[in-house]
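stage 2 :: seqdesign
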């Protein structure tokens, strides 16, 4: 099993747009329904205001590293990335469990 964890925060210099942000988060939450080989998928918002905290976390699981490699270029994922990169920056970690 491979875990794919991504942290998101609003891009520096981008003004907060709550409605747009809510739409983007909803798109993130819905992505798992479009890719049948995602095993587990959860998007959650940060709940504590601390300078080191990012705004959202995506926790997902795949069968193996090959599944993650198929997921990254998947058209549904790439369409979401195109929308997200105008508002969020992110960092990711992939690891075996």
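stage 2 :: out
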């Amino acid at each position: 099993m491979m875990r794919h964890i991504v942290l998101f925060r609003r891009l520096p210099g981008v003004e907060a747009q709550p409605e747009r942000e809510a739409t983007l988060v909803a798109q993130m939450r819905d992505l798992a329904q479009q890719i049948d080989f995602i095993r587990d998928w959860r998007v959650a918002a940060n709940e504590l205001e601390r300078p080191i905290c990012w705004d959202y976390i995506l926790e997902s699981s795949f069968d193996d590293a090959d599944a993650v490699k198929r997921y990254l270029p998947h058209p549904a994922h790439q369409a979401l990335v195109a929308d997200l990169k105008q508002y969020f920056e992110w960092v990711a970690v992939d690891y075996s469990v």
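stage 3 :: structure notes
- The first helix runs from residue 18 to 30.
- The chain has a mean pLDDT of 97.
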